Amino acid sequence: MLVSAKDMLQKAKAGKYAVGQFNINNLEWTKAILLTAQELNSPVILGVSEGAGKYMCGYKTIVGMVNGMIDELGITVPVALHLDHGSYEGAKKCIEAGFSSVMFDGSHYPIEENIAKTKELVATCDELGLSLEAEVGSIGGEEDGVVGAGECADPNECKMIADLGITMLAAGIGNIHGKYPENWAGLSFDTLDAIQQLTGDMPLVLHGGTGIPADMIQKAISLGVSKINVNTECQLAFAAATREYVEAGKDLSGKGFDPRKLLAPGFEAIKATVKEKMELFGSVNKA
Ligand code: 13P
Questions:
Q1: Over the stretch 68-90, which tens digit does the pLDDT of each residue have?
Q2: What residue spans of the chain are helical by DSSP H?
Q3: Annotated catalytic, 84?
């Protein structure tokens, strides 16, 4: 059964570790992430962007697939199914379809509008027992065709949004989606510290988990980050393993063209990436 992310994140915040959100794209992704979480006895959050939602034939298809897998694979660790960077409409659709958690990303609106829309969703999510993530300060990089320069969140605005009763707060602290450029200035720990001082127990979310060095991840967790989103790194690992298989000509030998064989190295590569992240984030054996 899917669960809200509330309990797992409050425990993570108190225990000074982070739960990984791993974005899914298809059956192989979902199965690899769920099996790894179960093997490591770790809670997990499956992230779905609106683009990935469309690709996978809509939110109802995804809810059916994830619920089916939890049942058929005997997954007993806590699993939240979460909309990533949702619009207001997208959040409503996911709630109707049976997601257990949603993010409403109102960071591109003026703060008053972000507050008003977030507030409405707090009421809906509270009533249904779902977790809600809100965002302040945009996260740089490209996601679903939208390129953001990234900006550090204003800690006072973070406090205003946190006080609305959301479950977790994403705040821009110099993080970027996708690969980090050579000249990246790193995370702004001063901003993160100031946000945590004002928001107290609120679990903070670090987007753009791909390519952040381990020491920065650990420092971010020590300053209140309890959820870390990883997407691109699984895609890179999947692509590299698939490329290796094809370049070695394995699809041309025997039944190597069978998708169950062709996609197997990529599947294993996702599992290895998720394992590495869960170990780094400290969520192993915290189910
Ligand atoms: P990356 O693709 O950089 O890992 O970011 C993932 C993310 O933050 C999804 O919201």
A1: 999 999 999 999 999 999 999 99
A2: 6-15, 27-39, 50-55, 59-72, 88-97, 111-128, 155-162, 189-199, 214-222, 232-247, 259-262, 264-281
A3: yes
Query: What's the pLDDT score for residue 142?
Result: 64
Which residue ranges make up each domain of the chain? 6-281
pLDDT at 141 over 80: no
Q: Which residue has the higher pLDDT, 181 or 227?
A: 227
Catalytic residue among 71, 84, 201, 251: 84
Beta partners for 234? Answer: none
Best residue among 143, 205, 270 to mutate for probing ligand 1's pocket (most ligand atoms within 8 Å of CB) is 143
Contact 21, 49 (CB under 8 A): no
CATH number of 6-281: 3.20.20.70
Residue 252 has what pLDDT? Answer: 98
Q: For strand 19-23 and strand 176-177, is the pairing parallel, antiparallel, or unpaired?
A: unpaired
Question: How much distance in Å is there from the Cα of 141 to the middle of ligand 1?
Answer: 9
